[in-house]
Every structure is written in C-alpha cells, then in structure tokens.
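In line with agreed milestones, work has continued on tokenised descriptions of protein folds. One protein thus recorded appears below exactly as we store it:

>
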Amino acid sequence: MSGKPTGATPLLRIKGVQKSFGSTHVLRGIDLDVARGEVVTIIGPSGGGKTTLLRCVNFLETYDRGSITIDGAEVGYRDGEARKRRTETDLARMRAETGMVFQLFNLFPHLTAAQNITLGLTRVRGLGRAEAGDKAMHWLKRVGLADKAGHLPSELSGGQQQRVGIARAVAMEPKILLLDEITSALDPELIGEVLDVVLSLAADGMTMLIVTHEIGFARDASHRIVFMAEGTVGAEAPPAEIFSPNQPNERLRSFLGRFSAAHRL
C-alpha cells in the first residue's frame, strides 16, 4: 500500500507497554504509534506477544506498565491517576471506539446476522431499532451478505461468519479496528473473501492494527509492518523494506524464509 498517512498526533500511541503472566514476561516494553487512516500489520512467530498486545489495546488484558492512548485518552486507566482502572461503563464506551474482530468469530449463536450487528448499535450506541436495522443492512451489503441477514451463525460458512463479525465491528464506527488472526480458523478457500473485505476497508481509510500470518496480505494491505518476537519489536518499516532481499534483521529474515509461495509470499 502506498504512503503512510501523516498527522500531528498518532491516533494510537503505545509507549513502554509491559505485560507478564506470572513469571512469563510476554510484552517487554512495546513502543508503537499508528496514525489516523494507517494500516499497521504485526507479524512474527507464535508466542511473540502479538495477540496479547492487541488485547491490551482493547483492554481485554490489563497491562502492567506503560501507556496506551487512543485519540489522547488513556485506555483502561483514568488520566492522571496511577493505574486506577476505569469503571465498566467507561471501559464499554472505550471498547466501542476500538472494534475488535477475533479469530473464532464470537457471534451470538441465537441471533441472526443482522441481530448480531444491531445489538451493539442499540445497547451501546443508543440507536433506535429502525436506524440500527438500516445500518446493519448497509454493512451486510458492504460485506456481500445482504441475503444472509436473517440467517443464524450455524447457517453460515466460516468465511461468512467472519464477514458478519467485521460488519458488526465496523458498524459501531470505531476509531480503530483491531483484527486478530481473522483467517486462522478458516479453510484456505474462504480466506480470500474475508481479506478482500479488509482490503476494501483499508482503501476507504479505516485505521487498522492487524495481527496475521498471511504474509502476502500483510504486504499488500499495510502502510507499515511490525515484526514482533519474544515480546519486543524487532523491526518496523514499510512493506518494501521489510521484504527487501537486503533485509538486515537476521531474525526477520529467518522468519520470512519459512514462507514459501504457498504462503502467498
């Protein structure tokens, strides 16, 4: 993807973030900025802290040290107060600004595709049922599923369920969209239909932070790629530099070397 958007202040700012689970130090001082309208993709080996970082941005995981701000507001904690957790009401409001799509869909099984989308719009955004229904249909059309509005998740393919998940997140009009390995649970033939939706959102200027093992997709969709390993950022650059034959980072070269043409590299 061409040039990184520019802005005086990053929409997302991650500074010195650390996170441990017991004696396991998962994040070891992560620094990362994401500009408004930028698509940043995180790649790296399993266990490197990628998903944990995304969950910290949405405060599904607390972070032990450091700061995460979205549009200048500290995530999870009250501004100016040392590690004082926000109220659940505040957290719900802030999570609505950071739409997250998970690898295992997380749709409500008893609700139709349209109802899965309208639920947050009415309960969190306070929209009336008619307005929420119109917005749900708009996004179902956008992801190519207008004809599936009345279907339950069990009546949809994995790819269709994931597209509903994306529509649900984007319908909330978040400031940033977080995508966590959204194709990892899909059969290979279904991956393309989901990635096409993400590419169209990127083209529209949606700010996104993505974790993926789809290396070709990372190259095509991103303004910038971040390589994470062992809880640290090992490299950070535009795709052309990350995939350069002269890439100086030996750990990154080794990681990329594991991907053959079958992995879209």
User: Anything to note?
Assistant: DSSP finds nine helices and ten strands in the chain. Confidence is low (pLDDT under 50) at residues 260-265. The beta strands are 12-21, 24-34, 39-43, 65-70, 73-74, 98-101, 176-180, 208-211, 224-229, 232-237.
